[in-house]
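Re: export button greyed out
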Amino acid sequence: MKKITDLLPLKYPIIQAGMVWVSGGKLAAASANAGILGVIGAGSMKPELLKEHILKAKSLTNHPERLAVNVPLLYEKTKEQLQVSLDLGIKIFITSAGSPKTYTAWLKEQGAVVIHVTSTPELAKKCEAAGCDAIIAEGFEAGGHNGRDEITTMVLIPQVVEAVKIPVIAAGGIIDGRGIAAAMCLGAQGVQMGTRFVTSFESSAHDHFKNAIIHSTPSSTMLTLKKNVPVRLLKNKFFEDIKKLEDQGASEEELVSLLGKGRARLGMLEGNLEEGELEIGQGCSMIKKTQTVQEIVTEIISEYNEIKNNLIEF
Amino acid sequence: MKKITDLLPLKYPIIQAGMVWVSGGKLAAASANAGILGVIGAGSMKPELLKEHILKAKSLTNHPERLAVNVPLLYEKTKEQLQVSLDLGIKIFITSAGSPKTYTAWLKEQGAVVIHVTSTPELAKKCEAAGCDAIIAEGFEAGGHNGRDEITTMVLIPQVVEAVKIPVIAAGGIIDGRGIAAAMCLGAQGVQMGTRFVTSFESSAHDHFKNAIIHSTPSSTMLTLKKNVPVRLLKNKFFEDIKKLEDQGASEEELVSLLGKGRARLGMLEGNLEEGELEIGQGCSMIKKTQTVQEIVTEIISEYNEIKNNLIEF
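Workaround output, generated via the alternate export path:
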């Protein structure tokens, strides 16, 4: 089996997740500088804005080879997003929310590495068949959009590892060295972490959102909108509004109407904690403070090695 | 901090979970013989039947000190169940589904070790304050009754470990050496495994139920009955009947009426896969065959040590 560190030019097998309204050029560059994969989340960006963020990231790092773009395959501008990225020298793509068949072969022809995000072993097999180089297997704990089968990281990772021959990167509920070590024990070759980097100094999340995360509890998030597209949110008024409608048996249309547009931007970027959508992983309550990306990476690597060296023999 | 292996006279820090209709005297004795904690699940037993199972277990093992009883604190016969067990020399109790305050002090006066099952760090603190000797922290993945906050093992364990000074045993989604190693990385001192032992040769589960587990997929279980008492079930006709009622906005009373009585016995002990309630953990699809408890324990210990020795340095 190919190793993830042969596939990606990283110091550590860690991916900073692409996240709408949170992971722009500044965060991606900080991640690349810290030795991990810096991913620009293109989901919320028009091609022009994505171009700006890629250029910004490149101007802030001497490791452009550690920059990647995350493209959810569900917007009409997907092809343009991919083309803009390729034109600016991006060679690593993380794709999600759509069929891995659509763009993988074409991206590979352009010399790119393609990693698709999955939430079941079945989809992982389809990714492998479509030619993906690696899989990010994301558990129920993860923030934002999530699978319908509610398979947790603990249960998902070993089964995805068994299902495919390509490397598997674990995601969902991984906040620190403890989670990284657990994921490696489950058979992953690396991890993707999103939530931990939302509160990083370099993330674009609003300070109000960062503070809400730092003061959250293990019960602060919940997977919701299961009839539409399941998404894990920090509980707030917006979440309660959704829940009330769902409990009343609202239709998909009624829910879409409540949601309106721009809720994610309103919450995560503009800091409206009442009316905004706050996508975050269940592990958010393990985050105690804001740190730079470099501080986070140094800390989690040290934690990982300490745990590894202290595991008892049975 | 006290070590779990000082607290429990075991060869390995592994607890075979007490499970209604599945873990009787035969399974508990096999577990004790294999060096782990053998737990009789008293939930489905009247005191007279519990007595029979304890006597049976004692007759089948030279390690009666490794026998325990799991008592859900919600039936009227709870005190009698505890008394019968104490009278027969049981010194280790696992309590769940009720306040740890009710019986812990009294059981400690009788010289017993008390371990309470929790699904949140907050409840873990209450257990510690009530005098419990250890905590079993059980994640969303676990079979049977489960917490309302849907906190997964990956996210729950580190936070319970931080919340209390007493030893923490991880449960939920742990099927083999990979899961055990992951749990130890997350800070647990040991693990409780239920689902894996349901398919053991010595379990009382019906062969039809065992076969259904062996042929299950990662999507085969789901947490349901969230308005009443959340429970993770293998999907079958009975599960779909509940789901249909819930989707129609049924009241708690309507649901209780559908459920009727004896569904768990019908499914798990009598093997009615259509109309019975099949409680099982999400990790069930990792189980490939029926084995003796000794085979399972030998295998998972060997897996654990191999994973421990092969973890890469970052």
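Chain A has a mean pLDDT of 96. The button fix ships in the next patch.
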